[in-house]
Fold LIM domain-containing protein.
Amino acid sequence: MDNETYIPLFQEVNKFFEGLNMKIIEDIPTFLVDKHEINKLSHEFGEKDQLRNPVGMVTYKSGFFVKSVARSFLGGKNIHVVKKVQYIRNDQEVTSLLLVYGFPRLAIGATLAHEMMHAWMRIEGYKGLTIEVEEGICEVMAHRWLDWYAFVGDDFLHTTPEQAQFLRNLKEFLQNKIERNDCKIYGGGFRDAKWAIEKYGLKYTISHVAQTGKFPQ
């Protein structure tokens, strides 16, 4: 997937947030990057509590260069990637979204939903949350987006029966990975957030988090 084929997916994730009355009001630059680039920027920004090999990242700082994937094409048996370097400088709360190139659309969409929730909370003033609370909510959004996209996404609606079954299997795999994650931050955070949201609803839960920094009990 390159930037051209990524744009419709980005629009789908935006629709998901708009359907929850959580429209992101800032126009956030979004880039597909390779693993080396996202690891380099994660290290530069001191993201000590994040995954060692992140597949997505939100940046809040300005004044840095990012080497992104502009397009890709098949040459023989190899995929060739064309990259370009861009300078990120703006005064927004969220300066960019970075996603690792090379994963299936469904996986990138789930990662984007996760990262967009980080962005939404930052823009709406959710600061100072524990990492377990913030990552837990973001994992719930990724999990919910997979359910939502399975009903409305073009990948599921306009495809062959075999391709649709593959996507259903991939969706189940991605959700199972979130549900069974044994990491305290991501897995534990997800299960705590999911419990609260199922009991109290998303709107009340995120409102409670905004006021107290904790999930409702």
Observations:
- The mean pLDDT is 89.
- The chain has eight helices and five strands.
- The beta strands are 30-33, 56-59, 64-75, 78-88, 96-100.
- The first strand starts at residue 30 and ends at 33.
